Amino acid sequence: MLMRLLAAGTRMPAWVDAGVADYAGRLRGDYRLELVEIELGRRGSGDAGRAVETEGERMLAAAGPKSALVALQVGGRALSTEQLARWLEDRARLGEPLAFCIGGPDGLAPAVDKRACLRWSLSPLTLPHGLARVVVAEALYRAVSVIKGLPYHRP
Question: How far apart are the C-alpha atoms of 50 and 42, rounded to whole Å?
Answer without folding.
Answer: 8
